[in-house]
Design brief:
By secondary structure, the protein is of the alpha+beta class. The chain has 13 helices and twelve strands. The protein has two domains: about 230 residues, Glutamine synthetase/guanido kinase, catalytic domain (Creatine Kinase, Chain A, domain 2); about 100 residues, no CATH class. The chain has an eight-stranded antiparallel beta sheet, covered by helices on one side. A two-stranded antiparallel sheet has the order 2-3. β6 and β7 form a beta hairpin. α8 crosses α9, α9 packs across α10 and α9 crosses α13.
Length: about 350
């Protein structure tokens, strides 16, 4: 498969589902090779050896009758690195690092295996909506296939050994991306999410650790893996996610009952701006698309053809330039972003006019 074709594809997690709150589910497994130091103390020669060993296995592996395609990140330009980060296929730290490293991707991006990130391997499965159990099943299948060919660092007393102590044990990080405009608008989000740290969960922004919660979107994940089984981690996260969803839906009901005109004004202003704006910054676009998504979820606005996640990702700086196949300065990006979104909104405008 041509690299350009692979990177231009919409990722599986961007598919629209019936879930009004949970955008995506992810499971990530941290694994290291037995005979090599962790990446942060690995010399360039050792890093090259790790990439060579792992990439060869990845090129030959097949999971659920699917092959993955290996890409060495040293072969990519800065925009291509951005595309991978913006689609959540690699971490920002891997995209910004140097040396021997890479990523293997399934054709629909549901599988992604990072090589020489914080650990030698980061096995990731990312699916749309609330699919934690299915995500874990697929990740386990890929992990089993890799472990059949690679000698992972494992101890009976500790489990899988990882560069960060919080990942020791199962090496599993499970997370959900949730869309919480109701809680933000009603000023309840800090109260609801602030309690999660006491439950052993971490809350981060759209692009993980250190990122901001643009577009009313948050990532919720487990913090510790040592001493917990994979089933315990997933069950706990799923239960807490259910409570978050309940709080968000109640907040939306509250807005509809107590502040209906304020709510309608917010979502219609967002739709109108998206349909007519000639310049849109990335941050403004995410915020407006979030309010627009809220409007369609509660039935105030007609739905648009292109999904919420798809529009957010396609209008990020890297993806926008990659789709248009040319470099853009900040002003040009704002202009092209607005143009792309206006086109996506055209179908909704036609629906309103016909009605």
């Amino acid at each position: 498969m041509i690299r350009k074709e692979l990177l231009l594809r919409h990722s599986a997690w961007m598919t629209e589902t019936n879930s009004p709150v949970i955008i995506s589910s992810r499971v990530r497994l941290a694994r290291n090779l037995e005979d090599f130091p962790f990446p942060h103390v690995l010399d360039p020669e050792g890093a090259g050896q790790v990439e060579q060993i792992v990439s060869q296995v990845l090129k030959d592996i097949e999971v659920n009758q699917e092959r993955v395609f290996y890409i060495s990140l040293t072969e990519l330009n800065n925009v291509e690195h951005q595309v991978l980060v913006e689609k959540h296929l690699i971490s920002p730290s891997l995209g910004g690092s140097t040396g021997a490293r890479g990523v293997a991707l399934a054709p629909d991006h549901r599988y992604a295996v990072m090589v020489n990130e914080e650990d030698h391997l980061r096995v990731q499965v990312l699916l749309p909506g609330n699919q934690l159990l299915e995500t874990h099943r697929l990740a386990s299948a890929l992990d089993d296939a890799l472990e059949a060919k690679l000698d992972f660092a494992y101890r009976e007393s500790h489990g899988y050994l990882t560069a960060c102590p919080t990942n020791v044990g199962t090496g599993l990080r499970a997370s959900v991306m949730v869309h919480l405009p109701g809680l933000v608008i009603t000023n309840q989000v800090q109260q609801v999410l602030g309690a999660l740290t006491r439950l052993g969960l971490a809350v981060r922004g759209l692009y993980g650790e250190g990122s901001q919660a643009f577009g009313h979107m948050f990532q919720v994940s487990n913090q510790i893996t040592l001493g917990k089984s994979e089933e315990d981690i997933l069950t706990h996260l799923d239960a807490v996610t259910g409570q978050i969803v309940e709080h968000e839906l109640k907040a939306r009901e509250l807005l509809q009952k107590q502040m209906p005109m304020l709510l309608e004004d917010k979502v219609w202003r967002a739709r109108g701006t998206l349909q007519n704006a000639r310049l849109l910054s990335s941050e403004d676009a995410i915020h407006l698309l979030s309010l627009d998504r809220l409007g369609t979820d509660i039935g105030i606005l007609p739905k648009i053809k292109d999904g919420f996640a798809t529009l957010i990702v396609d209008t990020r700086s890297g993806c926008l330039q990659y789709i248009l196949d040319r470099e853009l300065d900040p002003n040009q990006r704002d202009e092209e972003r607005a143009r792309l979104i206006r086109g996506a909104m055209q179908e909704a405008r036609s629906t309103i006019q016909e009605a």
